[in-house]
Each structure stands twice: as C-alpha cells, then as structure tokens.
Design a protein that fits this description.
Chain lengths: 721, 279
C-alpha cells in the first residue's frame, strides 16, 4: 500500500536524510599557502576526488570539508596562477578530523586546472574527455580586454566575425549574432536571448569573472539546443570574506588609418573603461557587487558605444554546508549602427542614410542556485533563472516600440550521485519557457523540457568512459512539437602522469529561433523574408586529442576533429539581396589543432603557439562554408624580469574564401601584432598595450573595417585581502 | 669585435627599414567617369539612382554590382540637373555592363529596375539590351566619357495589382528564389535578357517553401500586362535556370495567359496557382 507524501515534506525528508548520512563521518580541514611567500591563499578550490565534496579556502587560507565517510581519499587543490596540487591517501576515520597543509607553487601556466563545463561537475582538466580551454582572470587582465570576446581571442580554434563566435568553424556570420551555435553560460546558466538565441557578450562585468571555460565540440548531451559548436561558461568570482575593493581602469586612443586618403575626422578617437568591484562577508552571507562603465567614440563614423553594467552576487552559507547563490546582472548599451562603409575609398564612413542609426541593448540576467550535499556520494542543485533582453535598432528608431523584450524563464534540478567507487551519475531535468514579440516577427511563446543523464565510469584508475544523453522536447505554441535525443560518448585515458588521450563523439542540435523563422524586414538595403517551415539543425561530432605535460612548465596538445551538419540553418542571400534563413546546407568541418606552451629559465621566458587548420565544406553546394577561415595561428612571446613583463603576440587568420554579401570585394588575411608591457608595484598593476601595432587594415565581414592601431593604458588596483 | 656587432646591428636595421610593411587593404585609384542624361518623368517614390558596373552579366547577386555614389540630380519631385556627372572607383579589370539603376523608397535594390545601359538604347520606354564593356587597364587608370541615357518612365509605376499565389505539391529542394513579374509580352524560354528587360515590373521577394503568398506588384497605369507569371530560380542563383512555374490564366482556358489592361480591368484577385507536381 502506498501513501501520498505531502509535497511540503519532501525537502524536509531530504534534509533529514542528509542528517542521517552525516552520522559517524570524519572531516578534512587544512590550510593552503603559497610555497614561496608562506602567505595563506584565499579562494583556492579543494576537491575530494571521487566524491561530490569540496570547499574553497577562506581569508586565512583555511578550508573545512566535513561529512566524509571513513576511508582513504585524495584531494586536489587548484587556483589560478598556481600549479594544481594533489595529496593522496588521506586516511579519514569516523568522528576524526584530519588536518592537511598544502603548499602551492606559483606558476604562470595552468597545466591542469579544475573545470566544470564539459561534465557538469568539478574535475581536473586532464580527466576531461572533450577539448577544454580555460581563460583565467589574470589572462583577461593581461590582455587588457574591454569585452569578454576580447579575452577569448588567444584561444586556438576560436574565430570571431564581429560578435559571432565560431568554435572550430561552427558559425559564420549572422546579423546581431542571431542563432548562435555556441551556447553562452554564466555559472552554468544559459543566457542566450529568447527571440534570437543570440549571445550578449556584455552581460557580465569583466571584474565579475573568475575564469572562462571553453568546451570545443557539441555539448547538447548536457546543455541542449545551441551547444552545437561548443560551450562558453563564464564562472563568476565568489565573494571574499573580508572587505575587498577592486578597481580597473583602461583609457586608450585610436590612431589614424595608414592611408591619408582614408582620414575622415580631426576629432580625437578614444575609449575608456572603469570597473569597480567590492566584496565582503557579513556573518553567513557573502556579497559582491560590480559596476562597469564603458565609453568609446569608436574608430569609425557612427561606431560610438556607451555602456553601463551593474551586477551583484549574494552567497548564503548554511550550517549543513549547503549554499544559496543569488545573482543579478543588468546591462544597458547604446551603440552606433555602422553597417557598411560608403566605399573602399571611404571605408571608415557610413552612407548618409545610416549616419543616425543606433542599436540599443538591455539585458537583465537573474538566477538563484541552491546546492546541498546530502552525503559524500550525493549532491543536489536547484536552479531558477530568468533572462530578459531587448534589442532595438534603426528599425526601432524609425518606428519606435516595435520590439518587446524577449523573456526566458528557466529551472533545473541536478543530482550528482557517486554510485559505488567507479560510477558517477549526473542526472537532471531542465525547463525553459520563452516569450518573444516584435512587429517584425510576431508574438511567440514556447517551452522546452529536457531530462538528461550522464555516467562517468572509471573502468581503471587511469581510464574513464563517459556516456550521456539528453532529450529536448520543444514546443512553440501553435506549432508541431519536436523532440531531439542527443547522445554522447567520451573516453579519457591517462597512460602516464602528464599524458592524456581523449576521444569523444556526440550529437548537437539547435532549434530554429523565432527570428529566423518569422522575420520580415528591410534592413539597410536588404530585404529579409520569413521561412516558417525552418527545421531544427543537428550535428554529429568526433574529437580525438592528445595532451602531454612536460618539464613541469610546458605542455603540448594536439587535436583532430570532424563535425557533420544536417539541415544547417544559414542565412541565404539571393541575387536581389533578399535574405532568408534556410535549411539547405549539408556541411562537414574537419581539421587539426595544435597548441604548445612552454616557460623556461625559472618562468622568465614564455612561448605559446597554436595553429588551427580546417576544411569547412558545404557538401550540398560543393564549396567552402562562408565566413570561415581555413587557417589561423597565434604566436606569443613573454619576457619577465622582476616586476616588469613584456609580451608580444602575432595573430594570423587566412583570407576568408567565401562570403555572402559582397563576394567580389577584395579580401585580405588578418595580420595583427600586439605589444603588452606590464609593471607590478605593490597592489597596483600598470599596463601599456598597443593593439594592431602595424596598423594593418582588413575586413573580416565585408565593408566593415577592423580596428585600427590603438594604444591604451591600464591600471588595476586591489585593496583589502 | 665591437665593429662586428655595430655592422651586424646596422645591417639588421637597414634590412628592417627596407622591408615593406604590409598594411592590408588599400584605397582604389582607378575609376570610370561619365554622365547620365535622363528622359521621362521622375517617379515620386524615387529613393536614389546610381551607376553600377558588373564584371559578368548576368550577375549572380545584386551585390556583385559596384555602385557609384547616389546621383545628385533631383530635389523632391523635380529634376534639378540633367545631364549629371558621375564617377565610380573600380579595381582594374573588364566590366561587361555599366548601367543606371533606380531604387524605390524603403525597398531594396531590384536588378530589374535598370533604366539605362552604356551602349543601350530605347524604343519608346522599352530598353534594347545591347551593352558595351569597359576595361580599366592599371591601378591608376581613369576611363572617361562613359555617357549613358536613362529613361525614368521605365520605373514610373503609379498603381498596383494584387492577388494570391497558391503553391501545391512539394517544393523542389533546390529552390533559391521565387518572384512575380508582369511582362509586355511572353518572354522566350531561356532568354535572360527577355526576363530582365522586357518586364514591366518584377518582384523577387516571394517567400519560398510556403503554401501561399499574398502579393502586391507595382505597375504603370498605362501598361498592358500580357503575361503575369511566377518565376523560379535555383539555389545557386543561376539565372540560366529561370523558369515560369505558373501564370495568371484565363479561367475559361487555364493554359492561356490572361491579359490585364491596367487602366480598364480590376486589379485585385489576380490569383495564380503553382502546382509543383505538374512541373
């Protein structure tokens, strides 16, 4: 006989179960300190391997992990700017507290950092079955990036066409970044807009970012629609316990174009950015808030930008070690609408009818995330989130009020369950409700329900197989529902210390957005027409990788990849300039990627190089896919001497072979040279950066000139612990 | 030893200074110039008129056309300068067609709205599609006296016809463009010039892969539309694949096109059915 349990009692029962599980358990406590200076390290991640347990160090470098069943454990300690340390065979007995002391060695290279995105749980990068790259907060500061996308430019296989990110050739160019094939997450929460499935790169202030993880290859088996080409996860900083104020300011000036014929103004063209962040703890509540302001004249006519960004994070720590995170980020941006140049003899000027065009963006991103550790083997995560986004452009300028905000409300329940000693099950269900409306594509509502399951099976201590799948059931109200199952398999093999072989294969998919299906508009001389019969696109990817760490300070990584696409949704422009999103393309992208990084002479001299070669092929039309370069490389040298470091970077992107809008326009490869000089003095960092030092002119997207040479000065200061 | 190093540094400096630094894209110096002489009446919904050059005709896309700046020859509804001088900066090469193209307010460029051709002529308002190529020899060459006659009456459309196009059967997978056109006579099969220059109005913005579409086509009130047809082009946008897939038929004889005299006939419910299963 079964009795109904009142719903209100379910969380109480879960907490009671957690209490029962905690009987007869032990605790690991410890301190994490800098090996050289012997100062405690704040914010280091401590993970108990093969459990769901972990902690971060406090302001005194201490950590506490309780509720551990008796047994032998290994902990991994990682922190940006330090080499990951592992401590093996810690014996935990019932009711006993085991204390450890972890010495961390400073390193400019993150050889095996802790990542979360490729498997939805924290693990070492070396045990991932997919290709993962990590950009730490120090890289972001070092590049003096003003935007998130600027921070990602040094990653192999990543290419940007304006704001459209392409990982290993996944995406071409779509106006306003519509229908992104790369999923953007903030702390694991999808933040693509509801109407266009577009990425808003400015949705998070830069000072909020702890690290950015980039997973290359489809991730739909865990994240569903849009994670076809890859996933970018912005991990925001956790608040510090004692009061900490961070300040960052960047001011730069644009040079004139190289050719006198192209001079178009006598005005000083500049940009400036100010970021302020404050963080502290009040009892069991930690909070952090950031404010960011960016103003730029742009380097072209009608290319100005004015942006405000405010965010806040509250972390509630409960006595049972569960946490509740509340996060809010608001962004408002007004930008000039430079669509195309007048002609190649006036490439920095817009035609008269575009001179007053503006683009407005507003986004509000909210989430609440509750994590609880039921036992050392079971962890739960509940999440609710909402993203509100509104875009306006010259259409709105001519015809105000035509766009309404896109609204996306979501929820997720995830359970991480260690079954025995060799299986780690990650299961959950995600829900999203989207509302969008515009006079240009009508009013639409739809929902997606997505259960998922993944098993990380450790067959041997150095061999792990990952099997997973996710079912996405999507319904746009008034239309036929469609369901998509996205499976994946991954293998990670570590034949020796420092060597990782990984193989993964899986499916990706993306549902057509309401914008792509229903848009009807005249846009800067182009007529965009709807295609209500647009079907979802899907892909199958294969990735083989080999990663070798050598000499403590060096690593090399080699990858072979192939992605096959069916029903690929691409904007197709006909001979009259009429644009329609169509399913026609059957495509294949295959390629090779190689990355090497080495630091010599006590990490005073560093060298990093990466090469990506790929063949993005439209199998249907038997030609190269548009807006994808076939070859790209980055070469970077760094010399450090005491507080001073000098970095030189050269970036080469081969000529884009196929474009859609103006195929007869001359096109050139991209050749950019950067210099970065940094000086550290107490808690201040001073930087001088020259971007595009040779003042090279190229247009990756037809009739939109890339950034001219610019010189910027940056100051970063931190006060408090 | 010191001399050796000085020599080495000097050599490297000279070598570096003598290297030409690549700056990527460059301005264009070569150009063609001439004048446009307008005839006919300026349509009141004129947005702009430009001279355009294309290296091969027919172009695959409107975007293969290289446009001059907008010609400044009118203010409001009045022509203020006639003839008007123009210049068009172009990279060296052979340009098969140089034409004058008209654009309607709030509409995209339409390839069929050509109102003059370099080397072309008119019989009444009908453009005779003959054209002369222009060759730019070198990076600094200027080709002058490219003078063109343009007839604005060709696009002076003051009324419109409307109806519904119904699509039956399965759309061909390789559909690229579908349009609706009104012609002064039935174009010859596979004669691209007929489709381009003998039309009275042509609109290629009919959505594809849909079940039906309500169209509106701007025409001139003095026109006699002997053939109103739905046109199809493949997804390589190869104009040689242009095909009539349906036309406005006489209800008593579905195989015969029905003539519409704009000044006399009713201009609504000019419905066309396209049955892909019968093509």
């Amino acid at each position: 006989m079964f009795y109904r349990v009142p719903k209100i009692l379910v969380p109480v029962m879960v907490l009671f179960a957690a209490h029962l599980f905690s009987q007869g358990r032990g605790t690991i406590t410890g301190i994490v300190i800098d090996k050289k200076t012997e100062r405690p390290l704040i914010g280091a991640n401590v993970l108990v391997i093969n459990t769901v347990l972990g902690a971060s160090t406090d302001d005194n470098g201490n950590f506490v992990i309780s509720n551990i069943p008796p047994g032998r454990y290994t902990i991994a300690v990682s922190m940006i700017g330090y080499r990951t340390e592992r401590i093996d065979t810690i014996l935990v007995r019932s009711g006993e507290e085991k204390r450890v002391r972890v010495l961390m060695e400073e390193s400019v290279i993150m050889l095996d950092p802790v990542v979360i995105t490729s498997s939805k749980y924290l693990h070492a990068l070396g045990s991932s079955h997919q290709s993962v790259e990590v950009v730490g907060k120090l890289d972001i500061i070092g590049r003096q990036s003003r935007t998130v996308e600027g921070s990602l430019l040094g990653i192999s296989g990543i290419h940007f066409n304006e704001e459209n990110i392409s990982i290993r050739g996944s995406s071409g160019f779509s106006v306003y970044n519509v229908g992104s094939r790369v999923l953007l997450l903030v702390d694991g929460v999808a933040v693509l807009t509801s109407d266009m499935a577009a990425i808003n790169w400015n949705c998070v202030p830069l000072l909020d970012i702890e690290r950015i993880e980039v997973v290359k290859g489809a991730g739909s088996a865990l994240y569903g629609s849009s994670a076809m080409g890859g996933t970018v996860n912005i991990i925001t900083r956790r608040p510090t316990k004692s009061g900490t104020l961070r300040l960052r300011t960047v001011a730069g000036v644009y040079d004139r174009p190289h050719y006198k014929e192209w001079y178009w103004t006598d005005r000083l063209l500049y940009y400036q950015q100010l970021d302020i962040g404050y963080s502290r703890s009040m009892g069991p509540v930690d909070f952090r808030t950031s404010l960011s302001r960016h103003v730029s004249t742009g380097y072209m006519e009608n290319n100005q930008e004015d942006m405000w960004n405010v965010s806040g994070k509250l972390v509630f720590r409960f006595p049972d070690h569960s946490t509740l995170d509340l996060y809010a980020a608001w962004m408002k941006c007004t930008r000039g609408g430079f669509i195309q140049w007048i002609n190649q003899n006036s490439p920095f000027e817009v035609p008269p009818f575009n001179k007053n065009d503006e683009i407005h963006f507003n986004t509000l991103n909210l989430y609440a995330q509750y994590r609880m550790v039921v036992s050392s083997k079971l962890g739960l995560r509940f999440r609710i989130s909402s993203i509100l986004s509104q875009i306006g452009n010259q259409l709105t300028v001519y015809d105000p009020g035509v766009f309404r905000p896109g609204e996306g409300y979501g929820g997720e329940l995830q359970a991480d369950w260690m079954v025995g000693s060799s299986h780690f099950l990650i299961s959950g269900c995600e829900f999203r409700w989207d509302i969008s409306g515009s006079e240009y594509f009508g009013n639409h509502r739809g929902y997606t329900v997505s259960p998922y399951l993944q098993d990380e099976w450790s067959i041997l201590p150095n061999l792990k197989i990952s099997l997973g799948m996710r079912l996405d059931h999507h319904l746009l109200i008034g239309e036929e529902a469609n369901s998509r199952l996205s499976p994946k398999i991954g293998i990670n093999y570590r034949p020796s210390s420092g060597t990782t072989v990984r193989v993964s294969s899986g499916s990706g998919f993306r549902a057509a957005t309401v914008f792509e299906k229903y848009i009807r508009a005249d846009y800067s001389g182009f007529n965009i027409i709807p295609n209500p019969d647009l079907k979802p696109e899907y892909s199958w990817f294969f990735d083989f990788g080999l990663r070798q760490i050598f000499m403590k300070n060096s690593h090399i990584e080699f990858s072979l990849f192939q992605s096959d696409y069916w029903n690929m949704i691409e904007p197709v422009i006909n001979f009259l300039g009429t644009i329609q999103f169509q399913n026609h393309v059957r495509a294949r992208i295959r390629g090779v990627e190689c990355e090497i990084e080495s630091w010599l002479w006590k990490e005073r001299i560093g060298f990093k190089a990466d090469f990506t070669w790929m063949d993005p092929e439209d199998l249907y039309h038997k030609k190269t896919l548009p807006y994808r370069p076939k070859f790209s490389c980055n070469l970077q040298w760094t010399v450090k001497s005491g507080p001073i470091s000098l970095q030189t970077e050269y970036r080469y992107i081969s000529r884009i072979e196929e474009v859609q809008i103006h195929p007869l326009d001359p096109r050139v490869p991209v050749k950019l040279l950067f210099f970065r000089l940094r000086y550290l003095w107490k808690n201040l960092t001073l930087q001088l950066v020259i971007n595009n030092a040779l003042n090279y002119h190229s247009a990756q997207i037809e009739r939109r000139m890339g950034e001219v040479r610019n010189i910027s000065f940056g100051l970063i200061a931190g006060f408090g612990k | 030893m010191k001399k050796y190093w000085i020599k080495k540094v000097l050599f490297l400096t000279i070598l570096l200074c003598s290297c030409r630094i690549d700056h990527g894209l460059e301005p264009i110096s070569s150009k063609i110039t001439g004048s446009v002489h307008f005839t006919g009446e300026l349509p009141r919904y004129t947005d702009q008129v430009r001279v355009a050059a294309v290296s091969s005709f027919p172009p695959k896309s409107i975007n293969e056309l290289q446009f001059s700046d907008a010609l400044t020859f009118f203010q409001g509804n009045t022509i203020t300068k006639n003839p008007v001088e123009w210049e068009l900066y172009l990279p060296p090469g052979r340009y098969e067609v140089v034409a004058v193209v008209w654009k309607e307010v709030k509409h995209p460029w339409n390839l069929s709205d050509i109102i003059g051709l370099y080397g072309g002529s008119f019989v009444g308002d009908l453009l005779i599609p003959t054209y002369l190529p222009v060759t730019i020899d070198g990076p600094n060459s200027v080709v002058e006296n490219i003078d063109i006659e343009a007839n604005l009456n060709r696009v002076n459309r003051d009324t419109l016809i409307q109806g519904t196009i119904t699509f039956l059967g399965k759309w061909p997978e390789n559909t690229g463009v579908v349009g609706i056109g009104a012609f002064s006579e039935i174009p010859q099969k596979n004669n691209i010039s007929d489709y381009f220059f003998k039309n009275l109005a042509l609109d290629y913005s009919v959505p594809i892969f849909v079940k039906s579409y309500d169209y509106r086509l701007r025409v001139r009130s003095k026109d006699v539309l002997k053939y109103i047809a739905v046109l199809w082009i493949d997804n390589n946008f190869d104009l040689s694949t242009i095909t009539d897939i349906g036309f406005y038929a006489d209800p008593s004889d579905p195989l015969t096109p029905k003539t519409v005299t704009v000044s006399e006939d009713e201009l609504i419910n000019i419905d066309i059915t396209v049955d892909f299963s019968e093509l």
